[in-house]
């Protein structure tokens, strides 16, 4: 009880300093809990949606995906004959069966040719209005579609794009463009997570999406009373056999949920990883806080020991304070995490993903995990200061001698840190010189871990050296005030090292990712310059195929010397060694592709691969299967017949664009794949006539005005797009890393605040002999700046080393240009100095307000 009372008293007595440490715990726990609540809520929302929209049993073509995704390389959804509906209705236990048609391989535009797609990248779905949809949608205005000139849209899409009844829209599919007017608006009875949905009548949907009637994409089956979904499925399979995919509502929901989980897990674990970094940074803050609090209570600890308190009791007293800090910070963090999750849901709402707070899901494991992590991390971080407090002897403490200096432990720490850093450096060197990316990535991970730990351990030694250098460069110009700031930073190298290390971690990751991102852009730009010979590339940004109508529009564009088509086909290969290789992709293109994309070969000429009944293979495949020029490969096309193709070229594995591709001409492929099964183009390459590049570029954009889903890019556009995509990814990562940097700034603030208290008497004496308030504030600000710059130097140097090593691994994949983004590195370095200035504002202000006589009288 005495230990608890002492701990409570000390906790309350230092509540201001504890609050800063509690904020670090709060932020970290909030990030963990917010991530878990947000992803759990997403799961709940989609669970309800999948359950509400699934029929008891669903029948679809065997080639259809488990999730209902209808994107195919022909641009049309896989279908089954209408006769299947009659067969299903005859199965035992069937109450009703209804055929439907829908597709996600569509683009819908308004009268001005603007796309009516969700802003969150969600699907655009066009389908037939049916009884299953009537269960989950409520018509709020107008009527359901009743003819070819009518379409009904969902309320969210109507609101988003300002559509009303009578407005004209165009539905662009592989079949053509269908125009209709809005006949009605329907609202979701469940949460719409962000899809845009358009309904046609069944016959019009068949003609628009497939190009013919008498077919459906799915059959929705409802069970009779007392018949389970599993029993119904068995009965339907008994009637249809194994020619079709038959799934219960749960199987459909599970398949959709599995696909969703792959996306959510990436986001979830990435955010938890950044929360872990924030926890790591927070450990330094807590260690520093308790170390300084223990040092400031040396005499008090001595009195406790003198009146009979044991080492264990003193140790326990400090740990109880840490426990209180962990509990308070974690409880507040759990609450803040729920608020963060709600904020993320509102943010998703701005991106057209509607998530209702009615579905807010807080599993009991979320606060339990948050409390466990927060308390455990805080107590573990406080263990070393607590152990140090227990070692203070009563007599030494009463003399205010503090904890005994342990020169030996400092020397051991320095040696250990240097060894770890050296081992990490060797690991990074091994990664950089690895011949395989998989092997090198393991060494890279080990090197990052060892160098990070090594720099943290050797921090006090580095602080002593670097702070002196920084003092000579930055502080001496400020005269005596600068020299005092330097001595203050050097007074306790262990403290300075720990404070700088907290900032180092976040900045090291920023520098590493900046180097990797910049090198990827530079490498890809270099490859484009060396490889791509075409002037323009036309593609659909979501990976959809290009319709025949759009291809014709491109080919009719004036000012073009040539247009090259490019298709992808799935095939099973039988190689000369007798082995069968399933699920390979054949890249079929016009012969001009050999000029549009200059691919290096190790044998033969790529242009020869476009001769009749010829192909190319890549170097690794050739070595694995003993293929040489002139070898024959048997190719069985998934949607066609079997061909025997002669290998005329072997491409280099060093290629970046189309690495690992196997080429053949479209003319060759067309001999074995029926025209109605021939895939549409994935890409188009266009080359302008000499001197007509600019007019042709504008003409292409005008020609594709009717098809806004396709983008025309010249090489400059392509490079900028790549730069923007990587830049957006890095900005998002930097935003998440900002959490760790915020915690590091709190550490600097806390260290300075406690340092000011520790030096109260000293500050009073300096003020008494003439140091002005302005000079005092400047001294503390300079001390803060030098600590921040010290951390930045360590972090940026370490991060650039990591990034350069990672680039060497990327070079094995063809990205062989190392580019150091000096503007970013310089900006981060300068920003670190401002971070130091900002962190010193409150401590400097409080120090300057001290009463001189009271400060001198402080014991």
From TrEMBL:
Its main location: membrane. The keyword Kinase does not apply. Residues 57-74 have a biased composition (Polar residues). It is a multi-pass membrane protein. Residues 19-237, 499-696 form the MacB-like periplasmic core domain. It comes from the Bacteria. Keywords: Cell membrane, Membrane, Transmembrane, Transmembrane helix. Pfam families: FtsX, MacB_PCD. Coiled coil: none annotated. InterPro entries: ABC3_permease_C, MacB_PCD, Macrolide_Exporter_MacB. It is found in: Cell membrane. Signal peptide: none annotated. Residues 57-78, 113-133 are annotated as: Disordered. Residues 274-394, 736-852 form the ABC3 transporter permease C-terminal domain. The chain crosses the membrane at residues 269-295, 318-342, 362-384, 414-432, 444-477, 498-522, 732-757, 782-804, 824-845. Belongs to the ABC-4 integral membrane protein family. This is Membrane protein.
């Amino acid at each position: 009880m005495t230990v608890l009372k002492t701990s409570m008293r000390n906790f309350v007595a230092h509540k201001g300093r504890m609050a800063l440490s509690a904020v670090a715990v709060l932020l970290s726990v909030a990030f963990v809990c917010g991530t878990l609540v947000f992803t759990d809520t997403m799961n709940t929302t989609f669970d309800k949606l999948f359950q509400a929209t699934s029929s008891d049993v669903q029948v679809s073509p065997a080639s259809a995906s488990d999730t209902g995704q209808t994107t195919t390389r022909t641009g049309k959804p896989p279908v089954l004959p209408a006769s299947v509906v009659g067969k299903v209705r005859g199965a035992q236990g069937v109450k009703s069966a209804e055929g439907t048609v829908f597709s996600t391989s569509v683009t819908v535009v308004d009268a001005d040719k603007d796309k009516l797609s969700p802003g969150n990248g969600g699907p655009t779905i066009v389908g037939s209005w049916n009884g299953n949809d009537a269960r989950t949608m409520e018509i709020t205005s107008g009527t359901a579609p009743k003819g070819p000139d009518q379409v009904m849209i969902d309320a969210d899409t109507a609101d988003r794009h300002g559509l009303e009844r009578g407005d004209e829209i165009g539905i662009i599919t592989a079949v053509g463009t269908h125009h209709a007017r809005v006949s009605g608006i329907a609202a979701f009875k469940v949460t719409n997570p962000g899809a845009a949905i358009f309904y046609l009548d069944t016959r019009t949907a068949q003609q628009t999406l497939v190009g013919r009637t008498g077919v459906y994409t799915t059959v929705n089956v409802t069970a009779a009373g007392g018949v389970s979904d599993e029993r119904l499925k068995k009965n339907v399979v008994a009637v249809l056999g194994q020619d079709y995919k038959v799934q219960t509502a749960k199987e459909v929901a599970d398949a959709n949920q599995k696909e969703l989980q792959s996306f959510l897990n990436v986001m979830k674990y990435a955010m938890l990883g950044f929360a872990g970094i924030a926890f790591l940074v927070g450990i330094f803050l807590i260690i520093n806080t308790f170390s300084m609090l223990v040092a400031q209570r040396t005499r008090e600890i001595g009195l406790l020991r003198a009146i009979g308190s044991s080492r264990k009791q003193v140790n326990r007293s400090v740990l109880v304070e840490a426990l209180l800090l962990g509990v308070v910070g974690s409880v507040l963090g759990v609450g803040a995490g729920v608020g963060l999750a709600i904020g993320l849901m509102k943010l998703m709402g701005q991106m057209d993903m509607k998530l209702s707070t009615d579905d807010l899901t807080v599993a009991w494991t979320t606060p339990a995990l948050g409390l466990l992590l927060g308390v455990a991390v805080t107590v573990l971080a406080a263990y070393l200061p607590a152990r140090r407090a227990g070692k203070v002897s009563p007599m030494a403490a009463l003399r205010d001698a503090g904890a005994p200096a342990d020169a030996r432990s400092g020397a051991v720490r320095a040696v250990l840190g240097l060894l770890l850093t050296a081992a990490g450096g060797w690991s990074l060197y091994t990664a950089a010189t690895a011949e395989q990316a998989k092997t090198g990535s393991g060494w890279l991970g080990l090197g990052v871990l060892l160098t990070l730990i090594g720099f943290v351990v050797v921090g006090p030694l580095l602080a002593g050296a670097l702070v002196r250098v920084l003092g000579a460069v930055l502080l001496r110009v400020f005269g005596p005030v600068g020299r005092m700031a330097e001595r203050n930073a050097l007074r306790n190298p262990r403290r300075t090292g720990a404070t700088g290390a907290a900032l180092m971690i976040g900045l090291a990751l920023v520098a590493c990712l900046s180097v990797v991102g910049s090198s990827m852009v530079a490498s890809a730009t270099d490859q484009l310059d060396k490889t791509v010979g075409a002037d323009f590339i036309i593609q659909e940004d979501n990976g959809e195929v290009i319709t025949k109508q759009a291809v014709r529009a491109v080919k009719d564009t004036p000012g073009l010397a040539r247009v090259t088509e490019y298709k992808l086909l799935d095939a099973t290969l039988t190689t000369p060694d007798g082995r069968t290789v399933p699920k390979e992709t054949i890249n079929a293109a016009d012969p001009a592709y050999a000029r549009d994309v200059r691919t290096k070969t190790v044998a033969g000429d790529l242009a020869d691969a476009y001769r009749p009944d010829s192909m190319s293979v890549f170097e690794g495949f050739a070595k694995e299967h003993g293929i040489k020029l002139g070898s024959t490969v048997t190719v069985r096309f998934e949607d066609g017949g079997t061909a025997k193709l002669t290998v005329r070229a072997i491409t280099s594995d060093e290629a970046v664009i189309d690495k690992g591709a196997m080429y053949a001409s479209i003319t060759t492929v067309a001999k074995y794949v029926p025209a109605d099964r021939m895939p549409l183009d994935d890409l188009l390459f266009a080359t302008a006539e000499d001197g007509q590049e600019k007019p042709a570029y504008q003409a292409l954009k005008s020609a594709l005005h009717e098809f806004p889903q396709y983008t025309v890019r010249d090489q400059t556009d392509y490079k900028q797009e790549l730069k923007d995509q990587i830049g957006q990814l890095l900005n998002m990562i930097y935003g998440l890393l900002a959490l760790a940097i915020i915690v590091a700034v709190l550490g600097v603030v806390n260290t300075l605040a406690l340092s000011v208290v520790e030096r109260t008497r000293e500050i009073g004496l300096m003020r008494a002999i003439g140091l002005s308030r302005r000079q005092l504030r400047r001294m503390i600000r300079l001390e803060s700046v030098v600590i921040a710059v010290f951390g930045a130097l360590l972090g940026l140097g370490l991060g650039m080393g990591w990034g350069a090593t990672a680039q060497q691994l990327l070079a094995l994949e063809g990205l062989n240009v190392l580019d150091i983004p000096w503007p970013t590195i310089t900006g981060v370095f300068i920003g670190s100095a401002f971070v130091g200035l900002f962190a010193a504002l409150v401590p400097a202000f409080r120090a300057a307000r001290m009463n001189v006589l009271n400060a001198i009288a402080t014991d």
